[in-house]
Every structure is written in structure tokens, then in C-alpha cells.
Amino acid sequence: MSSKARPSILIVLMGSVGDVARGLPLVHAIKAAWPGCRVSWLVEPKSHGVVILHSAIDEVIRFERGAGLAAVWKLRKTLRARRFDLVLDLQRHFKSGVFSWLTGAPRRIGFHRNDTKEGNWLFSTETISARGEEVAKLDHYLTFLSHLGIPQPDPLEFGIRERATQVSLPAELEVLQGPLVGLVLGSSWRSKDWFAEGYSQLISALLSRTKAQVVLLGDGSMAALSQKLTAAHPSERVVTAVGKTSLQQLVALIARTAVMCGPDSGPGHLAAALNVPYVGLFGATNPGRTAPYRSEGLVVQSNLGCAPCYRRECPGLGRLCMRLISPEVVCDRICSVLG
Fold this sequence. Notes:
Blueprint: E1 8-12, H1 17-23, H2 25-33, E2 38-43, H3 45-51, E3 59-62, H4 69-82, E4 86-89, H5 94-102, E5 107-110, E6 126-127, H6 137-147, H7 161-164, H8 171-174, E7 180-184, H9 196-209, E8 213-217, H10 223-232, E9 238-240, H11 247-255, E10 259-263, H12 266-273, E11 278-282, H13 287-290, E12 300-301, H14 320-323, H15 327-338
Parallel strand pairs: 1-2, 1-4, 2-3, 4-5, 5-6, 7-8, 7-10, 8-9, 10-11, 11-12
């Protein structure tokens, strides 16, 4: 820790919503260990709406990724002006390494050389211990706390629920009554996505076995699937929020659910950050690495030798690993949470 009474710390984690959500617990842990410190966070527009919900982050610095070199020059001036004492680079790519270096901070901590990409480690003054790709990504982030001599809190505090519950929803979603089951209809990799027939059979089972309302979640790219499912299940208990929410409204809606379900995707980690159980459907990726915090025991996956393959597109088997996931087993997991 810096000898300054109020050391200034920057967390660099700009990428996917899921990664950003998993990095949030570091803030409260650092502030608990170092009272009086100032914590800033560097993020891109994609995940900005999540970071600004955190109650203990002093400043959110937004890198306007689409603005080219002008944005980089502007960011450099901003970072230099803050005179950071310590930078934690949680991104492990070339870009985050450069931004860490641009701060001019005397202490810049990044991932071990073996765990970085694109020469990221070259921009750090020190690195955490090597962990490999088998350790949970959240635990990988928490290694930064160990490196700093900061105890890991249990349970973790993600710091976004209070503000999330204050976000207003669109009128048609504001009136939803619980218990709510949120179904996430897709992910950033096609190989991780479940099938329409799986969702349809799951919805039928939920309507039959529970009194819950089913809320379909996703961005505009999932609109066709959402329309197909609502047409197949014309019930007041099946509601779609697909394409109808901002990122902050999605967080607010997740906070109101009793349980969530879907593939390995950002909303799963938002659910974890909000202490909402998530039934994760896994195939192409390893739940040991990316299952949402506290929902590891709710994972459903098929027993297929080629999984996890870590490919964005299935190499010829028609996403068999996801097709073999049983809707009845998924419903059992959800019902176990609903009680």
C-alpha cells in the first residue's frame, strides 16, 4: 500500500459484462482493508451500466472504444491527471496492459506471464502467482487480494444490489408479481446456446409444476426465439423482456427474480452479483472455470466426451452437448430453488 493517507487505486476491467461482474467484489475488500483509499474503475460502454451501480466505487472512467485514437489520447490525459498509486489490471490483454502503463502509476499489478495474452505482462511492475485456466475466474481475480495481503471476505460483497433495486423498469415489467423465473435465451457464443425446443419444454414443465411467472431475457438478437416461445405458450404467466431493457434495467429485473436459468453468459454472473441462484446450462465451456458464484451446484450439463471444447461454433456435432441437456432435469433444479 502507498504511504499516502488516501492512496488512489485504479481497477482496469473493461470487457464483458460477466467478467466485470466477477471483478466487483475486489472493491469492498480493498476499502475494508485500506480505509480512506480511493478506488476508480476503467470500463468500456458495454459494461458501464453495471459498474456505475456499485456503491463504493469513487469514480468510473469510461473509455469510448468506438472513437479511435482520439479516445486513447483523451484517456491518457485523464489517467495521468489522476496520479494513481496502484493499478490492478484484471483484463490480461495488450490493450489493458497499455492503459495500465499509460497511468504512470509506480505500482502496476497484472496476471502472471503464463496466464496473460498478447504480451500483457510486459506492462506490469509485478504479477500475481500463476493459476492456470482450470481455476474459477472469480478465484483468479481474488488472487489479486492475496497478492496485496488483503483477506478474502466471506461471503463476497458485489455492491450493486441496493442501487439496482432502485432502477425503474418499463411499465409492462414493473407490474410483474413473483415468484419470477428468468430464462436467458442466449449468449455471446452460438456453441453455448440451448435450443428452442428445450426452452419450450422447460416452460411447459414450469407452468405445470410451479406457480411462477416465466420472464424471457435477452437482447434484440433473441427476439425471434422470444416470439416463438410466447406464441407457443400464450399464457399471462409467460412474459418477454427481450429487447425491452437497458443493461441497468436488466440488472434491476434480475434482482427481482427468485431464480435464473440459461447458458454460460453475462446475466448468470449478474445473478450471482445480486445473490440470485442461477441454473447454468453448460456444454462448450467449463463450469469449473465460469459457473456463477454460489450456483456451482445448480449446473446442468450432458456427459459428452468432446465437452468442453471452448469453440464459439460447434465443430460438426450440431451442439449435441447442449441438445442432450434434459428440460426435466433443468426444471428439477429450478424447482429445488423455488422449494
